[in-house]
């Protein structure tokens, strides 16, 4: 009974001790404690006597593993996940960001780069491809009935054969899946010639393992079907590296020999890819990028193109780039013999022009504009656009514009011109930059003044931000009284014919901006009074009057209480009276600059920005 006693004591120590044995030394220590307990038992106790029962409590172990069931001593297979990680890296696993240096995005990506957009590598058609070639390891089901009954699933062996009893081996390797039925049936019919029906079907196709290397984002070993295309495997590897990899030379190697070369330009242009069936151990090798030409603008395909040395000419580039309509000139910039090089050629002459790696090409529409469009707005009854020859003047266009004499004010015509609006915008931007420099570089003589300057800078910054959003109209004054200047027109000019009106528009720093019926006896002060008077921020010394034809004048009103003698400008129907905001001289240093900008905005855009 001593061995049984020692075993019981050992189990008791293993279960009751609070220390988990993690090493051989721990186990030996527990075994020694059990032996000492057996030797120190009561001397009068015989081996045949029963010891007192021991209360054993189950251990409360915590760990990541749980025992789901007993398998009777059979080996347990490990479990694994076969679902995609969806691009999530494992802890410590290198990522694209940690392997590749950060690069700026390419303005002109490689031609055919969109082949690797999306997740088409995860899309698979249901069923088997009829063009799939039978390989070792594939499973084929065979049924025979009639004079002979047979049903079994056979596997293609290493020699590419399947074996059928009483028939013998049948070679099926490299047979298309759509032809395996006829091939096996014909072989069986050679033995069983009568009263035997046969049906053969490919059940599974064995995946192949293909290596992908070269300038791809994730080179390595990837699994797929033998009938998968080279595009599928390249997409599995993350696609070709835009900066380093070639889209024109992708070699497929088998046992060290190149069996095919893929050119993705041929696939994009002609739908051509190598027609091969992949096998285990095949290598897809992307070669380094060759000579590249960048097409910046003017083409439907403004990409970076890769060419071989014998393709570097303008004709090949134009064929791939596809210039836009009306392009007639080409600009080429590059390096020749270590010196900067540039040419400006016609599209026809560019066809035979030799290019060099690194050249930059622009396709340009450089036709002389002999006919352009003039827009008509306002009160007219004819078309809103007319096409005129280069050199046409305003008076020539006015003779073709149909108006209603009672509704159209032909004495106050003005133009809206894009070039003038752009110049007004540039002048305003320069003034705003000057104001910004002056407010941030103003001298500070004390700490208290520094705090005031900080608040002032914040207010001025807010004003500058709103002022930069103003879009000038580009008004051109061409009429005064009954005279209209016969100015030369520019492309996209807009001729504005105001409508006859009886209103005066009052806006800006007044209590109630509104339109007031014209009164020949009233002055600017009267119209402001009818609009509720000035606000607290109004500049009552200079009132902006914008005439119907675009002319700008200033009226002056001294004080908020109007006198009979104030108001020197005779207003006319259709005029705008705008009260500008005043600037507090005590709080802001750059009063003069801000006041000038406010005037510029009011004149250029007909708005009062406070």
Automatic annotation (TrEMBL):
InterPro entries: Poly_export, Poly_export_N, Soluble_ligand-bd. It holds the Pfam family SLBB. Residues 504-550 form the Soluble ligand binding domain. It comes from the Bacteria. Residues 129-202 form the Polysaccharide export protein N-terminal domain. PANTHER family: POLYSACCHARIDE EXPORT PROTEIN GFCE-RELATED (PTHR33619:SF3). This is Polysaccharide export protein. It comes from Salinimonas profundi.
